[in-house]
């Protein structure tokens, strides 16, 4: 039996706007607007000026936007080192999913368990040059795999095409895992995702699409999200 994902087996697509490109002066309103425009998750980028060369937002901002997000998941992407101390803080602040980079944790298995123990879903993030071997022995502790399609630290960068074969490899691993009875694992892509490349990213196996500048950089959020969904549908129908 083939273990390669067929388009029919891909989970429904989710759009996760990154608030890194939102107007920080009115974040609550931005979050409400983007959800009303059809977003599924809110992607929350945490940078520490140590693991990555930029400094952004922390648990207090997560807590502040939580009432504006309603039932939608807050998808926290930690680009911080070390990781563990922030996990309980983000869980308390209303995070739904917490993902981290394996290079930033001394004990990856322990950090994944810590996230689940605090009632959140756990994700592992792979930089463009990070090998997939990191997921080999922790598949049962993963709810999400996040592939970086840029080097982390900044919004508005160009999508790295080397992400596509890597995506196909992760899709194959996840499908194999689930065929063996494992829990579902979401496959998210982050960096340089736009309406004009989202179809090939979908065809390679992604189910969750982070987009910052491609949504918040436009005046009509609903039009940007609809254009992305239309491209995803096209990709699915082309391969059906
Ligand atoms: O994690 C990130 C950067 O490290 C951001 O989520 C990502 O860059 C989104 O922004 P854009 O869609 O503009 O590339
Ligand atoms: Fe991110």
TrEMBL record:
CDD domains, A to Z: RPE
Write out the catalysed reaction. Answer: D-ribulose 5-phosphate = D-xylulose 5-phosphate
Q: Which GO terms describe its biological process?
A: pentose catabolic process; pentose-phosphate shunt; reductive pentose-phosphate cycle
Q: Where does a divalent metal cation bind?
A: 43, 45, 77, 190
- Active site location: 45 (proton acceptor), 190 (proton donor)
| InterPro entries (alphabetical) | Aldolase_TIM (IPR013785), Ribul_P_3_epim (IPR026019), Ribul_P_3_epim-like (IPR000056), RibuloseP-bd_barrel (IPR011060)
Provide the cofactor list for this protein: Fe(2+); a divalent metal cation; Co(2+); Mn(2+)
Give the UniProt entry's GO cellular component terms: cytoplasm
- Which residues take part in binding substrate? 18, 77, 153-156, 190-192, 212-213
Family label:
Belongs to the ribulose-phosphate 3-epimerase family.
The record ties this protein, via PANTHER family, to:
RIBULOSE-5-PHOSPHATE-3-EPIMERASE (PTHR11749)
What this protein is called in its record is: Ribulose-phosphate 3-epimerase
Origin organism of this chain?
Corticimicrobacter populi
**Gene assigned in the entry:** rpe
């Amino acid at each position: 039996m083939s273990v390669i994902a067929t388009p029919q087996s891909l989970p429904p697509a989710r759009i996760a706007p990154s608030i890194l490109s939102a107007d920080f002066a009115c974040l609550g309103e931005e979050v409400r607007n983007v959800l009303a425009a059809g977003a599924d998750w809110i992607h929350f980028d945490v940078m520490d000026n140590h693991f990555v060369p930029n400094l952004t937002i922390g648990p207090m901002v997560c807590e502040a936007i939580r009432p504006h997000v309603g039932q939608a998941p807050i998808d926290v992407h930690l680009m911080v080192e070390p990781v563990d101390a922030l996990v309980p803080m983000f869980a308390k602040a209303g995070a739904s999913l917490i993902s981290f980079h394996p290079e930033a944790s001394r004990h990856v298995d322990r950090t994944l368990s810590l996230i689940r123990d605090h009632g959140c879903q756990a994700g592992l993030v792979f930089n463009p040059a990070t090998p997939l071997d990191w997921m080999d022995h922790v598949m049962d502790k993963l709810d999400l795999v996040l592939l970086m399609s840029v080097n982390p630290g900044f919004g508005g960068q160009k999508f790295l095409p080397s992400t596509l074969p890597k995506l196909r490899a992760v899709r194959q691993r996840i499908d194999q895992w689930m065929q063996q009875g494992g829990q579902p694992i979401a496959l998210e892509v982050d960096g340089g995702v736009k309406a004009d490349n989202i179809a090939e990213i979908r065809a390679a196996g992604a189910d969750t699409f982070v987009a910052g500048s491609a949504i918040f950089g436009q005046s009509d959020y609903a039009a940007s999200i609809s254009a992305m969904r239309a491209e995803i549908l096209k990709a699915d129908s082309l391969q059906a």
